[in-house]
Input
Amino acid sequence: MSINYKAVVSDLREQLGGKPVTDEYVRRFAWSTDASYFRIVPEVVVHAENMEQVKRTLVVAREHNAPVTFRAAGTSLAGQALGEGILLILGHDGFRKIEVSEDAKQITLGSAVIGSDANAVLAPLNRKIGPDPATIASAMIGGIVANNASGMCCGTAQNSYQTIASTKLLFADGTELDTGCKKSKVAFSKSHGQMLEQVHELAHKTRHNLVLSDKIRKKFSIKNTTGYGINALIDFCDPFDIINHLMVGMEGTLAFINEVTYHTVNEAKFKASALAVFHNMEDASRAIPLINGESVAAAELLDWPSIKAVTGKPGMPDWLSELPPLSAILLIESRADDAATLDSYTKDVIAKLQGFDFLRPISFTDDAAVYGEYWAMRKGLFPIVAGERPKGTSVIIEDVAFELEHLAGAAHDITALMHKFGYPEGCIYGHALAGNFHFIITPTFSTKDDIANFHAFMDEIADMVINKYDGSMKAEHGTGRAVAPYVEMEWGQDAYELMKSIKQLFDPQGILNPGVILNDDPKIHVKNIKPCPVVDDFVDKCLECGFCEKTCPTSALNLTPRQRIATLREIARLEQIGDHLAADSMRAAAKYDVIDTCAACQLCTIACPVDNKMGQLVRKLRTPTISSGQQKFLDFQANNFGAVNGVISAGFDMLGVIHKIIGNGITGTMMKAGRLLSSEVPYWNPSFPKGGKLPKVSAPIPGQETVVYFPACGGRTFGPTPVDTDKRPLPEVVVTLLERAGYNVITPPKTRDLCCGQMWESKGDFKNADAKRLELIQAVSAMTQDGKLPVIVDALSCTKRTLAGDPTLTEKVEIVDLVQFMHDKLLPKLTINKKSHAALHLGCSARTMKVEPIMTAIADACCNQVIRPAGIECCGYAGEKGLYKPEINASALRNIKKLIPVDVSEGYYANRMCEVGLTEHSGIPYRHLAYLLEECSRG
Output
């Protein structure tokens, strides 16, 4: 039966309003992107912030028999977060409850809480959640539970199945159940008594099918996420306990997960790691069963191709290059709550490995810097392999598990199959204690032959894993579509029929994520494979993993870096197949989301495992969009910047006076009319600052050190805002501070003429941007007495861009940011009188320049308590873009006011434009850290 999606969209908008519902193609396409190798574009996307919106979505889905796929962070690898009908994505603010029990033994989490955020709350209590997937810094709790995602340390003992206490669920028929609430269970028993009886009957039949129950125990003795978690039917008797555990690993096919309560696990205080270097994989694999026990918390195995991949890379041990071919490494970690126990554990491990001939002596280290290097080798493997793949190829991480005695043979067989099917670059690594191997291949999916080859490869992998070793086709990544055709092959007919009964029981209409886990199409895993066309060197390595999304300031406004790249790839694909009309149409439709509203803050580059530079690409893509008229205006600005800068500063002074006289409404109308004449007229904002002023310096004092101070554009153009209690412009405060510390201060004679060029680069005008930077470097260098005097810049982003100039010039002079100079030179010379508390923003420039620690140190030196609003990574002001695209700033800072305690009345950063945006949306004045240090160092 065909589904009328126009009616579906109409009904959804009637139920939810317009904002949460989108059927516009570019956004549907972009939002469909997940970390898997599939591409399925939904007909409509819903962003749900609360349970009422989820329930109303399901009402519409039931009425139209429309399929619904639930999406958390989209970091899943097997295609379980994609669907053709309604894609319901957890919103950007809802489902984020975090509640820790008094004894810290349990934690209740909303389904949109990121795993690492939960652990950050538990860390001071020496607790953590059990599951530890590699994606924990991005993956959300709903997805972690729904996939039974695990990781390097949790194994099968501390995964979601073993540590879940209760769940709040919404079933396809609209019924809610809290498995941890007696009242909810009583109500559910009355309304769904027949379902509970059927659950009980399924469990009874399974336990009494001795062959099946023995198979279930055996297969779940190792990691297994193939199919449903039918071990719940033999591990528990109470129907609610069974339901609770069936929800783990069900991949959104049985219910919507609202909240989860976990039993927390201990976070050991003492750790030590060792590298055991073997002659071959066989020896390394033989060692694993010997060390399996309480002495070892984690053991990661790397094969020879893995070792070769990381050899010579930054941060990797030098001696890797000396290892002979076929070597293998076992990375072992022991953990304990006291030093004595840790010592006994490490000695136990070494004793158990005495009989092996190692290529290097094995010894444990508890030095975090040393073992951090060991783990960097393991964690860096995937991004290194992915980053070095040929352009246009995809990255696929397969995920299988074996009983420990089969690891050596399985490793040999996987390697042979990778070579047989033309994936010689493939490497094997994995969570050895759990018998879990990951192997990476980088296939091309350009032709039907490519896809057929991959299909044949997977068939032989399945034959080897299932028929030869009775292993798991999916250990921890979930079934999804990737191994759905192999579920019955792995489990057999009885278990498969049992799984189908479970699906029918909980979702009789079949609307929840159909085709995932159970799918009768034997080729579903090689259909809808997303291509990976070449776009630009800046982003061609992108894995579409989603690690960038957490920090992106426009994630709640429209798109994230991953989604922008996916959109650009689709445009490139359309161009490549000759459909230029469709490419042009999509390019035009995507311009606002992809080009115009990207803040180009480069936080995505920091988060990216393969060093993509979406911000840099966006600036590059803006270049061809500059019209001839716009270029003439940019040239005029650059050639007459002193006058332009002075006019802007005076203009903001005049605007403030006009606003006082004629009021907010008329001023806004006037500015709106001005924007009709020129896009360079900003949107009106009552919290606009006054114009800035250039500093006045004192006469030099003989014998004192001298510094060159360059007041950057932001601070000298924009002065205090209406809510600022300190009405001095930044340059005046900086000079006061420097002179108080005993420095003579000199400034460039034509300061207003000078600029680092950031405002031109952000528009894609690299010619003027680089010319202005060169002019600045030459001007300040000429004042340094051949490099003897330091140059201080008072805005982080300006310092960063200046330092990125011609190294033959920048290396001859010391150019330093003001916060660095304050920390290194001023703090030791000043007497500090601490304030009570203040807020501190550590934004994109601070992170890209890696000055967060020194900014925090300055704030800590001046305040008894420093508050950093959680989750505010970038303000979204993006230089002057906040004047012309205020929606970016508003979206990025939508929650800041409620994150700042009511008794905090001031905040600090180190970029004036960012501070203007922070002030507007927080309701408190944000200023440069120099204001804080100046105030706290007064006599």
Q: What stands out?
A: The radius of gyration is 30 Å.
